[in-house]
Amino acid sequence: MNSALLLMNSRGLLVNSHSSLVNSLHLLVSSAFTREFTRFTREFAPFTREFTRFTREFSRFTREFGHYIQLVHLFA
Q: Which of 46, 47, 45, 43 has the alpha carbon at shortest distance from 35?
């Protein structure tokens, strides 16, 4: 009876060890992904800022061009 309980406990410990190992692996992968995503975000940030600046400039140009078109129609 005792040996059967020991065998069951050993099997339970083995399953728990395996689960802990799998969880550690998931954490390692998640950590690597987070590190890579952070690096990508840091590298991508200047492009995002530049695109935002370009969009702002283009919006201003479009607005000014619209005013110009209105004047042309007004004096046409």
A: 43
What whole-number distance in Å separates Cα of residue 49 and Cα of residue 16? 48
- Alpha-carbon distances, residue 36 vs 25, 46, 50, 69 (angstroms): 16, 17, 22, 48
Alpha helices (H) in the chain, listed in sequence order:
2-75
At 76 the three-state DSSP class reads: coil
* DSSP sequence for 41-60: HHHHHHHHHHHHHHHHHHHH
* 16-38 pLDDT, tens digit each: 999 999 999 999 999 999 999 99
pLDDT value for 74: 86
CA 6 to centroid of chain Cα atoms? 47
